[in-house]
From TrEMBL, chain B:
Gene for this chain: nuoK
Descriptive protein name: NADH-quinone oxidoreductase subunit K
The protein's assembly and partners: NDH-1 is composed of 14 different subunits. Subunits NuoA, H, J, K, L, M, N constitute the membrane sector of the complex.
Transmembrane segments: 6-22, 29-53, 65-89
Assigned protein family: Belongs to the complex I subunit 4L family.
Keywords: Cell membrane, Membrane, NAD, Oxidoreductase, Quinone, Translocase, Transmembrane, Transmembrane helix, Transport
Subcellular location: Cell membrane; Membrane
Organism: Chitinophaga solisilvae
Enzyme class: translocase
GO CC terms, sorted: NADH dehydrogenase complex; plasma membrane
Amino acid sequence: MVLSFVALVSALGVVLSKNPVTSVLCLIVTFFTIAGHYVMLNAQFLAVVHIIVYAGAIMVLFLYVMMLMNLNAELEPQKRNWLKYAGAISGGALLVVLVAALRDASMPALGTESTEIGLIGNLGKLLFKQYVVPFEVSSILFLSAMVGAVVIGKKD
Amino acid sequence: MPVQYYIFLSIALFCIGVMGVLMRRNAIIIFMCIELMLNAVNLLMVAFSKMWADAGKVDAGSAQLFVFFIMVVAAAEVAVGLAIITMVYRNTHSVDINILNRLKN
């Protein structure tokens, strides 16, 4: 419960903070709380991978780009305030619609006993037996993303 | 703990991400909000995996592998997207997306 509250507050901090570096740090806190939820849901391997990939790689990349651009001094132009209100209202309307649609759905309660599914052995067997073709396709995707990033970032 | 709790948490995180995409003008923060939305969906999928495993189904690990593939695609997307943002910043000296309306006319 506390973990979800921290997740929501820091997610709001991502959106509402003026300083981009502050919102990166808030997003890192959100990712750690989501990893905590993964552990509680018996997805231990995913929790570890989540922390390594997101907090370790992606957010460092964001921070690096942000420091490279020196965005701290630059503030966003505040002239179009109604656009912000429109965004907030439409996001809130989406929230209301989804909550109202799912409020009466009857779902089973999650058991407290731990399951073996999230351990790395079971996931590895599943990944290399049933999902081996998507795995190889994702490696090709990574290769093309790497080449694309280098080509785009190259000074021409 | 009912699975609805996780559904509502994911909805809230997703809607905060949508709000961020609509409200902010900074391209990097919009990108981070997209990451937030992806993670809301991942959390929901892990919760359903747990529900499926409690129901005794054998292939409940598939949802967790889907989360794994979403993480892979998100990492590739971040690499390309940050390269594009860096290129835009190099050309326009700003990451404000209001400048990027040249495709309009």
